[in-house]
Amino acid sequence: MPSNLAIKEKLFVDVFNKNYKALCLYGAKLCGDFSEAEDIVQEVFVKFWNVFKEDSEGISVRSYLYRMVRNACIDLARAKKYDTVDVNSLTDQLEDFFQAESEEDSKIDRLLEAIENLPDKCRYVFTAICVNNRKYKDVADEMHISLNTVKTQLSRSIRLLRENLNKDDFKLFLTFFAVSE
Asked: Which of 35, 39, 65, 171 shows the greatest Cβ crowding within 10 Å of its Cβ?
């Protein structure tokens, strides 16, 4: 009969395998550097193991891990005082990381393809606000359109993504792209 620690080790490996890539993407979105996000996620899993092996009762694992990654990225941002995210560099890093094709990779590909297939203005507004974390007002000023038009374009892009993605892929979308004003 396996020991309690052996059972926890197996559960931990399963949690790691199911969440590692998604947490790296989430961290990369927050800190702007995929390599740093990988380091953060690895450190988070070490800290998580130390908590998990002692007491795993009552822990909502997924939300706990995302909160740990978010907090670590915030700490890193405070230490480095990030101002901007180099989207091209981030895209290159993501492509290197996701070379092997898997079901999760194909979901990300479908998500990126759906974003790419948005109408030009919708895609621009969506990318500016959801990927580059720009303010609605800044995007409106840059495009010489009203604030309400920006909101309408963003709303339209999200509606189109919801229509073009299946339920699971749209949930993945919601995981990575938080829309806030």
From this structure: 65
CA 13-18-23 angle, 5° bins: 105
Interatomic CA distance for residues 141 and 181, integer angstroms:
15
pLDDT tens per residue, range 49-93: 888 777 656 567 888 888 889 888 888 877 776 445 555 565 665
Query: What would the 3-class secondary structure string for the chain be?
Result: CCCHHHHHHHHHHHHHHHHHHHHHHHHHHHHCCHHHHHHHHHHHHHHHHHHHHHCCCCCCHHHHHHHHHHHHHHHHHHHHCCCCCCHHHHHHHHHHHCCCCCHHHHHHHHHHHHHHCCCHHHHHHHHHHHHCCCCHHHHHHHHCCCHHHHHHHHHHHHHHHHHHCCHHHHHHHHHHCCCCC
- The pTM of the full predicted model, rounded to 2 decimals, is 0.46
Tokens of 163: 């229509």
Of 12, 37, 39, the C-alpha closest to 25 is: 37
One-letter amino acid for residue 140 of the chain: A
